[in-house]
Amino acid sequence: GAVVSQHPSWVICKSGTSVKIECRSLDFQATTMFWYRQFPKQSLMLMATSNEGSKATYEQGVEKDKFLINHASLTLSTLTVTSAHPEDSSFYICSARDPGRNTIYFGEGSWLTVV
Amino acid sequence: GNSVTQMEGPVTLSEEAFLTINCTYTATGYPSLFWYVQYPGEGLQLLLKATKADDKGSNKGFEATYRKETTSFHLEKGSVQVSDSAVYFCALSSAGGTSYGKLTFGQGTILTVHP
Hints:
The structure holds 2 protein chains of 2 kinds. By secondary structure, chain A is an all-beta fold. Chain A is built from no helices and 11 strands. Chain A has strands at 4-7, 10-13, 19-25, 32-38, 44-51, 57-58, 67-73, 76-81, 90-98, 103-106, 110-114. In chain A, the strands form 2 sheets. In chain A, strands 2, 4, 5, 6, 9, 10 and 11 form a 7-stranded mixed β-sheet that branches. The mean pLDDT of chain A is 92. In chain B, a hairpin with a 5-residue loop joins strand 5 (32-38) and strand 6. Chain B is globular, with a radius of gyration of 14 Å. In chain B, 39% of the residues are buried. The model of chain B has no long low-confidence stretch (mean pLDDT 91).
């Protein structure tokens, strides 16, 4: 079964609204989680590294005020897309590092459509 | 910086054919190497991994060997099935430390297997 769960799987929102996506590690504590974005027929691009109890580290070109990341507990990181616009429509996927198994697990991903 | 170059697709094969998807990388130090698979409409699943030179990762009939001398991690399967149709991503992560888990992906290769 899944060890990293992402929710929601699908979301449609209106332009100008905010959307929150959750990423949970189910059977391990993840001090570090990662958020990626995938445009249609393209590869995954790392957006940011989410660190429990501290600020996220954003990749170059990613707007931190638009893509708010909160990692308030060892099992939950959230990505909030603020003031969403149609160009934010994409597939967002998180991953978490399990230090015990030395393995990286991905969530199921979230399809965001902004209309 | 790190980079991963994958064989361009799409790749179309008949069932029971031999599969090779080439992957080469550029990285400093000794990265860990991964193959992920993405089935239609789903997130990423770890297919196999190798963490040091000459390691062979294997799973579900797929294999890949970490070749440091050629900086390659080619994916192979002796006899593909229709159910193997998916997008395959080669990826690397810098070894150890806080960077582990921060993946750099190749562009992905679409595999379609016909009966």
